[in-house]
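Thread: quick sanity check before group meeting

JM: Hey all, I'm pulling together slides for Thursday and realized we never actually wrote out the predicted structure for the chain we discussed last week. Dropping the sequence here so it's in one place. If anyone has concerns about the input, flag it before I start.
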Amino acid sequence: MIKTNERRTGKYILPRAVYNMTVWMIRDYERMLDNEEFYKGKIEAIEAACATVPSEYMIGVWNNITQYAAFPNDAHRVTYARYKSRFIHKVATSVGFYPQSATPEH
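JM (edit): ok, ran it. Output follows.
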């Protein structure tokens, strides 16, 4: 069990502040589309990260992030959580919230 003062480690674990900034940016995606020229880099980062997640999992990951929905029952919860973590990590590194040098080889 991880103590509250210990940092989790793993390939796709982000600092809490970076994770939260990235999730709120993804949740703001629909609004950013209204001013596409201003948010072009962020929109492209989100769309590029979407392309890295298999299509059968992307809808469940997207709804979990943007609508607080539970993951669908067509695959195990851990499978969806794994793709969600990779998706958020990809967005965070693409927009510069987290350094590229800290990204895993995958």
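AS: nice. Residues 77-95 form the longest helix (19 residues). The radius of gyration is 14 Å.
JM: adding both to the slides.
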